[in-house]
Request: fold
Amino acid sequence: MKYELLAFDWDGTLFDSAACIVQSMQAAARELGLPPPSDEQARHVIGLGLEPALHMAMPSLARERYRELAHAYRRHYFAQAHAVTLFPGVPELLHELRARGHRLAVATGKSRRGLDEALAQVGLADLFEATRTADETASKPHPQMLHELMDELGVPAHATLMVGDTTHDLQLAANAGTPALAVSFGAHEAESLALLQPLAVLHSVPQLQDWLRAHG
Reply:
């Protein structure tokens, strides 16, 4: 086993939520009378903490209205979050990794409330030894999130692998000094992920499972 700790992003990596996030951002913008971000603009900021994501997606909004926009976004997201679930094959993958002795963690741009509700919804909370959300530590790509997980679990950077679907995840890993693995079935396209030179860019959960069996 090369990597003791596998730190997974949540949205777009394990949880098939990118479309829900995009639609919720666009609906919140319309509610506030703002031009909604395009699908591409909204998908690009997935993985960041909510405030930096909304600022990047809708830069014309005055800072004093961020809280109003964030509230509208959360309302739209949680209204449809019950219909969002894990990518097919993810539960089997996570159970296999635990059985092989890997330690699992989540490093996500979601809020604590959002992650806890999602974990309860899919019934997998017990598989993860530690989790960090963007509202309790620094947002990606700042390395603090990964540093805290490694410190909590006592695993060095060279034995930690970050797995994510966005360039923010890959930059987080680079800043924290850990290797990274990219998946292209989430928010960001394979070409942009490859530019950051992860160990591999994988295009499905079965490919991810095969790679981790061979190299993890």
Summary: The mean pLDDT is 93. DSSP finds ten helices and six strands in the chain. The two ends are 6 Å apart (CA to CA).
